[in-house]
Specification:
Layout lengths: L1 E8 L2 E13 L4 E5 L11 H13 L5 E3 L6 E3 L10 E9 L3 H4 L11 E7 L6
Parallel strand pairs: 1-6
Antiparallel strand pairs: 1-2, 2-3, 2-7, 4-6, 5-6
Length: 124
């Protein structure tokens, strides 16, 4: 699953979108992507999204938008697998002190850098 984090601030009309630069050993380089991860046994989709977001970015979501119809089902590697992934949207309160002083909880083998971008017409 992938999580599309959107950060809202009270004093700012614009919102931010979060992307991570994740080091991928097969390409020996960083890849710009959304936070993502796999479900642990017994974990719900929402629990997984909250856990992965916290681990990879240090952010805590106020709300995860997940419904069967509006979520996107995407194929990561259709030539290798018939597996599908779900994208969810995480709404994040940027004014929350926990989101201002973030701490990632990465595995020893992970190298992830977090970036915020203004979500506007200039994003692309």
């Amino acid at each position: 699953m992938c999580i599309i984090p959107l950060i809202y601030y009270k004093e700012c009309e614009a919102l931010k979108i979060v992307l991570i630069a994740n080091f991928r050993p097969p390409i020996e380089s960083f890849n710009l992507e959304f936070p993502a991860g796999l479900m642990d046994e017994g974990e719900s989709v929402l629990e997984t999204a909250k856990r992965e977001l916290k681990e990879e970015t240090g952010l805590i979501a106020n709300e995860i938008i997940y419904q069967n119809i509006p979520t996107w089902k995407i194929s990561g590697t259709p030539w290798i697998s018939s597996g599908r992934s779900t994208c969810l949207i995480a709404k994040i309160d940027g004014d929350n002190p926990e989101n201002q002083e973030r701490t990632q909880k990465l595995d020893d083998c992970e190298m992830i850098r977090v970036f915020e971008f203004d979500f506007d017409e200039n994003l692309v």
